User: Which sequence fits this backbone?
């Protein structure tokens, strides 16, 4: 059996044709070496930076990190080991049955090479699939590390406005009618309905220059409750220390939110003393007004929806009242007909039952 296996893998060492078997094996080894060099010289360096980011993220957030290369290499080795075990079992079985002696050395080598090529292809295919799987997991982690805003469930930003420090801002999902209050400094991303925006104000050195608030009675009551909770006292924190006339030190947009935990959200667009004719001031003011304008549109849409909802409710109430009046009139007519003798008591009960079922 051992001799047959040696013949199959490398040819008969005692014959001059033994080098042909070695040549077959050298071809297979060359393929393995080429694939391995291709990975380490081209693919691996490109993934190194992403893996460093994943490792950093895993350490920072106590997440389980994944090494696509380690998983892929393990899969590759396991498939090769199983393949060679299968090769040994097949060679042992065929040798015991005398099958190898019947087909000859040349055919045996061809079958063996074909089998080994299949195993090698399967090993690389399996390693590639495993690599892609864990690489995809790592990419999701990297995306979350770079910008958690893109990983929020049921939220896709269509507009993003950030403050002067690029740490605090907001994003709008126009399709789902939601707003995300962004604070990268504290890693907080608070998603709210646009109906929860009660007031939007633009402050210049603590003085209000633009203000929009909800107009419905329900929203007015909510605003009163939130402001009485002390929100107004924070306005002093938006005051800038102006040293010279014709300059501005702060430009802020403040949102009052229907949330007792975080009723106030401020976005700063200017935090250094700047002359009003300076392009930096003009840009900051323009961005703040744009932010306020977007909030104004959302507030007006919320008011319009509240108004339409109230009108629908009123119409339904009026319709229900009219139905009740109409029913009472019809019942009175039937009663008068019965009292005048036009309808018998049986006919009256029949018509009343019919009226009740309509």
Assistant:
């Amino acid at each position: 059996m051992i001799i047959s296996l040696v013949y199959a893998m490398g040819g008969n060492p005692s014959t001059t044709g033994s080098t042909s078997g070695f040549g077959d094996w050298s071809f297979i080894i060359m393929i393995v070496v080429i694939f391995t060099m291709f990975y380490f010289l081209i693919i691996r360096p490109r993934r190194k930076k992403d893996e460093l980011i994943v490792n950093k993220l895993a350490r920072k957030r106590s997440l389980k990190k994944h090494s696509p290369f380690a998983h892929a290499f393990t899969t590759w080795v396991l498939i090769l080991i199983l393949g060679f075990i299968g090769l040994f079992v097949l060679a042992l079985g065929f040798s015991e049955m005398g099958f190898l002696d019947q087909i000859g050395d040349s055919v045996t080598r061809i079958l063996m090479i074909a089998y080994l090529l299949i195993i090698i292809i399967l090993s690389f295919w399996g390693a590639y699939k495993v690599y892609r799987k864990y690489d995809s997991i790592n990419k999701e982690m990297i995306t979350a590390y770079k910008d958690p805003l893109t990983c929020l469930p049921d939220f896709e930003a269509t507009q993003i406005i950030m403050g002067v420090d690029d740490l605090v801002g907001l994003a709008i999902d126009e399709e789902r009618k939601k707003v995300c209050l962004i604070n990268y400094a504290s890693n907080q991303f608070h998603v709210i309905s646009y109906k929860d925006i009660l007031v939007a104000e633009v402050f210049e050195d603590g003085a209000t220059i633009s203000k929009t608030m909800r107009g419905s009675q329900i929203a007015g009551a909510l605003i009163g409750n939130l402001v009485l909770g002390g929100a107004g006292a924070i306005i002093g924190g938006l005051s800038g220390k102006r040293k010279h006339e014709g300059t501005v030190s702060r430009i802020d947009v403040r949102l009052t939110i229907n949330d007792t935990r975080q009723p106030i959200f401020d976005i700063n667009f200017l935090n250094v003393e700047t002359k009003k004719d300076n392009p930096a001031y003009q840009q900051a003011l323009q961005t703040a007004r744009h932010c306020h304008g977007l909030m104004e549109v959302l507030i007006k849409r919320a008011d319009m929806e509240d108004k339409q909802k109230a009108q629908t409710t009123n119409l339904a109430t009026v319709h229900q009242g009219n139905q009740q009046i109409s029913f009472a009139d019809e019942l009175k007519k039937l009663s008068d007909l019965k009292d005048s003798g036009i309808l018998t008591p049986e006919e009256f009960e029949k018509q009343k039952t019919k009226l009740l079922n309509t």
